[in-house]
Each structure stands twice: as C-alpha cells, then as structure tokens.
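Why should sequence recovery work at all? Because a backbone constrains its sequence more than one might expect. Tight turns favour small or flexible residues, buried strands favour hydrophobic ones, and helices have their own preferences. The token representation captures these environments compactly. In the example below, the structure is given first.
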C-alpha cells in the first residue's frame, strides 16, 4: 500500500476504492478553490492597475481628438472612460475583476491538481511529465489570453463600425468588462485544446487514428465552437482563434503518433 499526498491509500496496481476517489477529488477541489480565493485577493488589491489595462483596448480605438476633448472635459461621451449608471456597479465590477483574475492566477494550481488526480491511471513514464504539463498548460492559457487582448481593439472597431456613424459609443463597465473577460477566457480555454486532446489519448479514450479520420469534421467543429464561445462573432476574431486551434489539433495527432510508436518500440524491446 502507498499513500498519496492527500492521505488516501492505493493498492499495489495504483487503484483505489470509489469512496477514496471521491475523498481525493474533494481535497483537490478545496485546494483549487483556495488558490482562486488567494488570486482574487491579489487582484482585488491591484484592481486599479488591472482595470487600466483592461480599458486600454477601448482607448486604442477611440480617436485621438476625442481623447483630447475628454481630457479637457469638453466631451463626456467621446472618450474611453466607462459610463456608470448604477451606484452598485463599481462594487460589482471590482468583484468580477477580482473573481476572474483570481481564476486566471490559479490556473497553474488547478492544472497541477487535475494532473495529480488522473496521474495514477497513467504509465510510469507519463507520470514524470507533471511539471511540464502544468507549465505548458499555464503558458498556453496566458498565450491565448494575450492573443485575445491583442485582438480586442479590432473586434471593437468592427462592432462599432457595423452599426453606422449615427450611433455614439459609450460602454458601461459591467458590459464592457464582461465582453473583455469572455474574450480572454474563450481564447485561454481554446488554447487548452491540445492539452485536452493529449489527456484523452493518454487516458486511452481516443486514438490518434480517430483524430486523423475526423479531420474534416474537426475543421467545421472548431469554427462552429469558436463562433459560439467568442462574444464578438466578427470574422477577424473567428480566424485568429480558429487557426491556432486547428494547428493544435494537428500537433495532438503528431503527439499520438509519436507516443504509439514509442510504445510499440518498448513492447518489442
């Protein structure tokens, strides 16, 4: 019998009873929640700087003349400041930023706990990749969020121009930050796509040959999924996220082929 870091016991083949699985799952969920809470406190403290960074994409699409008029307080609705119409909105916005920011900061801890939970069902060689999986997953999420942040000004320009010149743009904090957070979350989750496919292959749920046969459907499915999870729906955002996700799909196939080849070689040896 061996003991895991959560205090549960395993048999000689690495398995454990159902109740102990549930106990371990609860312990790892608690650790994830605590990590999110700690991250939320950090984001609450640094909220002014985080808010400035989130509003910057909006400022990038506002004409320089409007920004100059806003600075001189001659144009209330033409600048890039957000318009508050509800006295409770500033507090709810700060809670939202702290909550989503805490979740983003806790991504490494969440990925680590997920890996530790599924680790007993993997081959000994694959169990050694825990650190690499955690670091790669966190980097991919950050890369996706950064790509979303870069694409937000283009999406805002498209959405503002498509309505016509008779419309005056003035966003409320809640709606604007909801748009920005959903964009960054969608890209971050989309960039976890290869991690999911690798997980499913390592768990024996899918085979890389199945991914090869599903290529044509994968292209359509990726585009449809991106259209659903991205709030803007503009062609530019659709392309910016769909292309990397399909590249990740091909990389997952390459991983599966390499892994199957190594397993055949080990079996022959």
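From this structural description, the recovered sequence reads:
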């Amino acid at each position: 019998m061996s003991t895991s870091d959560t205090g549960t016991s395993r048999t000689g083949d690495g398995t454990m009873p159902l109740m102990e699985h549930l106990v371990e799952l609860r312990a790892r969920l608690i650790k994830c929640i605590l990590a999110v809470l700690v991250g939320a406190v950090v984001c609450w403290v640094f909220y002014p700087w985080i808010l400035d960074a989130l509003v910057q994409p909006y400022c990038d699409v506002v004409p320089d003349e409007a920004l100059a008029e806003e600075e001189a307080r001659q144009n209330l609705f033409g600048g890039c400041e957000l318009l508050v119409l509800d006295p409770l909105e500033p507090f709810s916005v700060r809670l939202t930023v702290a909550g989503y920011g805490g979740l983003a900061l806790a991504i490494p801890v969440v990925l680590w706990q997920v890996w530790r939970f599924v680790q007993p069902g993997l081959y000994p060689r694959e169990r050694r990749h825990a650190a690499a999986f955690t670091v790669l997953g966190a980097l991919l999420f950050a890369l996706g969020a950064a790509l979303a942040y870069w694409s937000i000004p283009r999406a805002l320009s498209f959405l503002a121009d498509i309505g016509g010149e008779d419309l005056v743009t003035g966003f409320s904090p809640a709606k604007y930050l909801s748009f920005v957070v959903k964009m960054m979350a969608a890209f971050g989750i989309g960039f976890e796509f290869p991690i999911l496919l690798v997980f499913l292959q390592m768990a024996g749920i899918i085979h890389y040959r199945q991914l090869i046969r599903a290529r044509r459907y994968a292209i359509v499915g990726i585009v449809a999924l991106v259209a659903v999870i991205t709030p803007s729906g503009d062609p530019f955002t659709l392309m910016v996220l769909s292309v990397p996700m399909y590249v990740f799909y091909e990389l997952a196939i390459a991983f599966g082929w390499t892994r199957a080849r190594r397993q055949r070689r080990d079996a022959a040896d």
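A few observations help interpret the result. DSSP finds twelve helices and two strands in the chain.
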